[in-house]
Amino acid sequence: MTFAKFGACATALALLTATPALAQIKIGVSLAVTGPASFLGDPEAKTLEMLVKQLNASGGINGEEVELVLYDDGADLNKTRTFATRLIEEDEVVAVIGGSSTGATMAMAPLFTQAEIPFVSLAGAVVIIDPVKEYVFKTPHTDRMACLKIFEDITKRGMSKVGMISGTGGFGKSIRQQCLDVAADAGVEIVADETYGPGDADVTPQLTNTDGIEVIVNPGFGQGPAVVTRNYVQLGIKLPFYQSHGVASDSFIHLAGDAAEGVRLPATAMRIPGQLADDDAQKTPVVTYIKDYKATYGEAPSTFGGYAYDAFQMVVAAIKTKGSTDPQNIRDGIEETKNYAGVTDVYTMSPTDHLGLDLTAFRMLEIQEGGWVPVE
CATH 3.40.50.2300: does it fit domain 24-141+283-360? Predict the structure, then answer.
């Protein structure tokens, strides 16, 4: 081979190796996969990884594969801001799903808003989408909606005097305030208002005085509500007992044990797949998601994983509908979501509503014999 031919071959090889790979659609994710909020972030991350694998196996989005750029922030607010900046400046993602907690969401949201990248949160507080922020959406029901649903069920049962005991973490504080704000309009009176810390192993002092109380409501999530529930039974209290959607998972029943019997709480259709009517718009997505998740991970998904499922599907639908990976177009597509039947509920977004759910999205359930039973 002559030097000229060798040089030509080398040049051709260099051009071949320099040719960029097929473009990938980068979707950013920041979740508490590990740490104290891992019961939220772990199933969320697993859900997203499963969905991306399924999507790419079926041809991706309009022929392009999706790359999930996932960071484990451990619900550490400093990490969430660092990862948000990295997703924007280094990874150049076109949309972001994440924020396992309200605190993490609120730390990241301003950065994505400034960068004009659509952000779908998986956290619960109403402050995330009220007031509406142009680039911020969310999939879980709000804490305000949970309070209203609980109070609606309480008044249906002919009660109005509520004793409230709330966690002091971010979610607990937020939902406590929302319950206080809507109580009067919902027709209930908060007779007692107690709190407990996330590390408290005994809350019997806060539960001791039940004078004038007809029903107890425990807004919170994590292990705290299980402690409250066990203490409630240990004290022999016979009043009706409500938890919030923050513990709508089988892990709460496991932690609370037999004490969970009779507890009511608002939850999603994911908790009762076998009890959904055949014509229920959510039956197919709920049953399919649970089946696929079990096949992939050998366990049932949680409600929290369902929030990630719906977020991903709406982002993908927006890209497909708009035929574009431009963040502004994706944002517009999410906002134009209409009648999307997900595993959490049926969503219809609008410029004035970046959640797309109303009070009917919740199903009031009661724990009976270690399982979930609808009570309406």
Answer: yes
What is the rounded distance in angstroms from the CA atom of residue 1 to the CA atom of residue 6?
A: 6
CA 162/CA 148 separation, integer angstroms? 13
Tell me the pLDDT of the chain averaged across its residues.
Answer: 92
Identify which of 286, 251, 283, 247 has the alpha carbon closest to the alpha carbon of residue 264.
247
Determine whether domain 144-267 maps to CATH 3.40.50.2300: yes
Report whether 30 contacts 87 (CB < 8 A): yes
Degrees (nearest 5) of the Cα angle 267, 270, 276?
A: 100
pLDDT digits (tens, 9 = 90+) for 21-45: 445 899 999 999 999 889 899 999 9
pLDDT at 6: 34
Amino acid identity of residue 83, one-letter, is F
Q: How far is CA 264 from the centre of its chain?
A: 20
Distance CA 301, CA 293 (A): 6
For the chain, the structural domain boundaries read 24-141+283-360, 144-267
DSSP state of 361: G
pLDDT of residue 23: 56
* Helix boundaries (H) for the chain: 3-18, 38-57, 77-89, 102-115, 143-156, 170-186, 204-207, 224-234, 250-256, 283-297, 303-322, 327-335
The C-alpha angle 81, 86, 91, rounded to 5 degrees, equals 145
CA 366 to chain centre: 21
Yes or no: say if 271 and 303 are a contact pair by the CB < 8 Å rule.
yes
The secondary structure of residue 309, as a DSSP letter, is: H
The two tokens of residue 268 are 């999603």
**Structural contact between residues 366 and 264, judged by C-beta atoms closer than 8 angstroms:** yes
Neighbours of 61 (CB within 10 A): 19
The percent of the chain in helix, strand and coil, each rounded to the nearest 5, is: 50, 20, 35
Helix (H, G, I), strand (E, B) or coil at 275: helix
pLDDT at 11 exceeding the cut of 60? no
- Provide the whole-model pTM: 0.88
Q: What percent of the chain has pLDDT over 90?
A: 85
